[in-house]
Structure formats: C-alpha cells, structure tokens
Amino acid sequence: MPFICENVECRAVLARGQVRPHQEDSGWCFYCPDCKARNELMFVDMAGGAVELVQPERASPPHKVVATARALEDGKYAAQLSVQRALAVRGTYAAEEHWDELGVFGDAQEAVAHAKSFATDLLQRAA
User: Domain of life of the organism in this record (predicted)?
Assistant: First the structure.
C-alpha cells in the first residue's frame, strides 16, 4: 500500500521504498521527499508476529478552510467562510465554496468560531 503525503499542497503518492521512517519523541514518522512535510506513522501487528509501520487512517483528505469575520458598518461582524475540498489526487481540489454572510455577531472571534463550526458540520455531512 502506498504512502500519501498529508501536506495539502503536495499529496505525493510514495512507494514503500521512497519512505524512510524516523523515530522521534512523538513517535514514528517519515518526511516527504518532495515537500519535506512530516507525516505520522504507526505500528500494526501483522500475521506471524511481524510488525509493520503504516500511515494512520484519515477520515478524509485535508481540506482548505478559511474562516474570517468581516466588519460591518454598525460595529458588528459577518461570519465568512471559504472551503476547498481536497481530492485524493495529488495537489487537486474541488471548486471553492464561499459564504459571505453565515450570520452577524457582536464579536469577531464569535463570528470566526461560527464559520469554523459551520465548516466542520459541512465536511462531516459530506464524508
């Protein structure tokens, strides 16, 4: 089974021979030879007592999510969101989805938190 770089800009598909495992304080990992991003590895017990390093299963590829708060004239903030869903192919994304006003809030942090929550719900429904 190939390894896939988790860097959303790279998404390189690597053969087992291209991956050099490293043990660090936080566990096993490999560094992508293309973009140098750190990728997590874990141990799996195989038949016959052998142990193998594999990538942890991910629910979905990493998506690009940008949540912002736009100041309005009345001193309130509009929650804005931009989402690009990652495709399984290296470095490719679906068309960007954008929401200019998910709600109006009295605080910028509250607006951003609402946009992030909306994105989480959106991506979980699609999974």
Answer: Bacteria
Asked if the structure places residue 98 within a domain, the reply is yes
Is the domain of 46 the same as that of 69?
no
pTM of the model: 0.53
The CA distance from 16 to 114, in Å, is 41
Q: Does the residue 59 lie in any domain?
A: no
As given in the structure block, the two tokens for residue 122 are 């959106």
Could you read off the pLDDT of 85-106 as tens digits, one per residue? 777 665 567 778 888 889 999 9
Question: What residues have CB less than 8 Å from 48, skipping those under 6 apart?
Answer: none
3-state SS class at 28? strand
